[in-house]
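User: Show me an example of a complex going from sequences to structure tokens.

Assistant: Sure. Here are the input components:
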Amino acid sequence: MSAETPPTPAPDARVGGAGVVPRERIAKDLAAVPRVPGAPKPDPIIVADGVRRSFGGINAVDVEHLEVQRGAITALIGPNGAGKTTLFNLLTGFDKADVGEWSFEGRPVHGRTAARMASAGMVRTFQLTKALSRMTVIDNMRLGATGQRGENLLASLLPSVWRSQEAAITARAYELLERFKLDTKADDFAGSLSGGQRKLLEMARALMTHPTMVMLDEPMAGVNPALTQSLLGHITGLRDEGMTVLFVEHDMHMVRHISDWVVVMAEGRIVAEGPPETIMQDQAVVDAYLGAHHDTDLGDDRLLEDDVVEQYEAEAEAEEATQ
Amino acid sequence: MDWTRILTNVAGEAFAPATAAYALAAIGLNIHFGMTGLLNFGQAGFMLLGAYAYAITAIAGWPFFASVIAAMVAAVLFGILLGIPTLKLRGDYLSIVTIAAAEIVRIISRSTSLTSLTGGNSGLSGGDGYKESFESLCPFPDGSTTLWLWTYPNCTSNSWWLRLVAWVAVAIGCLLVWRWMRSPWGRVLKGIREDEDAVRALGKNVYGYKMQALVLGGIGGAIAGIFYTLPTSVQADAMGRTTTFNIWTILLLGGAATVFGPVLGSVLLWTVFMLVKSILRDAELSFITSTQSEAFSWMLVGLTLMLLVIFRPQGVLGDKKELAIDVR
Amino acid sequence: MRRGTGAVTLLVAALIAVVLQAWPAHAAASQPCTPDATTGCVTGTVKTAEGQPAAGVSITVEGAGGSSTVTTGDDGVWSVPVTAAGEYTVTIDPATLPEGEQLRDPSATTRTVKVLLNSQSRALFPLGEPTGAAPSAEPTQGATTAPTTDRPSGGDSSATGGVSGKRVMQQLANGLVFGLLLALASVGLSLIYGTTGLSSFAHGEQVTLGAILAYTFVQVVGMDLWLAAILATLCGAASGWLQDAGIWRPLRRRRVGLTQQMIVTIGLSMVLQYLFQFLLGGGRLRIDTTNPKPVAIGPVTLTVQSLLSAGIAAAVLAAAAVFLLYTRTGRATRAVSDNPALAAASGIGVERVIRIVWTGAAGLAALGGVLVGLYFQSTAWNMGGTVLLLMFAAVTLGGLGTAWGALAGSLVIGVVAEMSSLVIPSDMKYAGALLILILVLLVRPQGILGRRDRIG
């Protein structure tokens, strides 16, 4: 009956400390990686094989092989309906794959529940931010801490068992809140925060679990442009502390700014991989986006070239004519 | 109209064993709904199981505390059985399954084919001997005692002894909920109430926590069942859907997710109920019979529930901002 | 999931064991009056305030079959057999009560009960302090009898008979008839859920409303049964319109959450239920007092009335299906049910559709109520409460929010309820139907015809 209480990781083993891979090394490692879908990486944290998930006969995700480099920021992009979020849900245990297996940090983890993935060190955020609105900001943060003795039904009745741990958790929560500039809001209900602040809170709360890998589902969606820059800074900050980041994004400017590697999905498949500087020149990527009449700025100057625009318009007209 | 008698009765209702029992059942429901957001519409089923488990084992000669443990075990098993198929599904499935399960318990326990065990549809009465183990623990002398306006037997049936024990149980229930609400465990439940996926994403075993909450609240209901039936008799039909709905009214009246809400709600509901019923009865209105006055009082309970939910969902004690009413 | 299935299997096994163990006790229990085709029983148990049986209390039963006086036995039980159906007055003699005991309601020394042949009617006289009654005093105490479910057809009112092929056929036929009637009410409940997301606990009262309106029109006003049924259906539909206009639309406008709305329906259900009791009392009400005419179709015996009822139900359900499939409004209804936001965006008047659904659903429920009232041979203020859970079970079983699912679910529930009395005591048959609901949810949470993405 007792809730899952994974052992508390040593506070600084994962964040900061020796686990940090210097950015230059990541860049060097990735430079040698072939730019093909499913390319093997020198130091993968996730290795996935033959992952498929279908809804009503349509393959939402059909990934043959995927590796994610440890310590890097990997962007997962693709037009609407490409299966990015579904893949995300599968990897984080929020959905069950029809077939396929994958490992996290060398251990097979397919079929694990979301809670167990999170305790294994893979923590996620949501596209529609899930701030726990009717709890205070500080309680949101405290909830994130793992291995709490007071989260056991019976132990919770004896404050002496958990009080010291609670104090440590609270102190760490305030540190993180300060870093995310939310410390003045600590005692407000989370529901009273702005959209961007909620994103920050969700990220800060995720960090309370001492993750090895942070999965961000559209971290920029619905964020006030004024906050964008600081949010970007926080994400690169995660890498600089040694965490691996995988994020789903539409905003191509952001992808180019902060990612070390880009994986492009279309119609459930991975169609291209490569560094952000060159990925948008890949023909498969252009096809994927234009074929799906993607409605956002690709953030690539190529898009402004006349022939591409014309091609886009012609396709749009053809589409309208058939309706 | 005899106002002294009416007011004495109404005030007596405030600390009656049944009021305490309803408060306990509502404390249990508060763990379900107020703390975790679970829509349990079968709290009367937990009461019924508790009452029968207690009474049947007591008649079989078990000592009082063993019978109480039997009632708690019955609630634990019932909670686990209900939780397995539903706690992974959307909230309204739990509500339909719990109300159906409570009805199953009621139908089975009133069935004539179980008369040897449950007394069938006439139930179990004091004559069957289920009250003795409790009454034999009574430290008071025999007879009855008048305290200020109220006279009750010391030890038998609707007694001072029962009142004492029932309200001590309510106090313990409040203390536990108070402790839990301010603990990390309660914080996880609250998180689940707000958004269980978010809590899952933080590595908590949401299913396990929901199960714990369901079972704990059910134990509250089972113990309420014992105190509810000790002054009268164990009757399947006395703990049906109306009982569940009354418990909901009590919880929402007092305030969900508060410590004293269930107690205040129970006291308020039953004193007002008694007041309305007594006045209608004593007024000797030519157009209203006594059955009708009772029906009228129940209509008022239903109306209270409707108006509360629409206009003051946080109840008397609740904090409007921190209100647990709209779960997915 | 697999572990869960195992646990439930255990529960079922335990349940069966309990039932089997209790079986001989049932057969051995002495019954001073056993209802059969020519006998009805009026019975009760008098207990003291302490819950002890009160022996030697004098009870008089007077009515169409004459008058007789009995005294309660050592177990407090009394019972009077009567040979003619009708209304009987039961009088208790307060002077014969044990020392120190009094009636909880001293003015009510008489009860009026409706007695049917082949059934039991109970009259209870609670003893205790006049107004010191615990809040528990359920209004069902008093001369109330929940609508029992004696089948009009003979030979199946007790579960003691063997399982013969003939009985299987008979129960199957009864189940199908009952399922069709249940479907009338369930389809509306399901459509309301589909279009608004609301599980209405007050839908049972819409069913009762139909039944008691029919009773009022026939027995009080003196109308023809056919006319009364049509009028009751129309009044029911009007009540649905009013309910949506007066309560649910304003609540939707206030953006009151669905859980809140659901609790409001619970309150409304209580208000309506006790309003019915307030107006018509707690007794059984017979819509049609003529004796049912049996017809034999092969091995199955049904009454003309239940055959007609089933026919009407089938015809009305077919009409509803045609409406949903082929009319513009019907298609709009299904579109709203599928995806309200999308439907609204594509120009469908969602509010208008919801109003039509409420009106139609309440009308169907009222018609269902009339027919179920005829099928049960009587109705009562709390009939809807009994039927409501079966309706919920049917709707959930079929798949929340789908009209076809509600129909399929109702037939399953009807058949399971009636057939289960072949193997379990007949007073447990609704428990069997509800248990099926829980078992199906374990295996297929989306219901028989539901879509997977609706479950969460």
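The lines above are the inputs; the final block is the predicted structure for all three components together. The first helix of chain C runs from residue 2 to 28.
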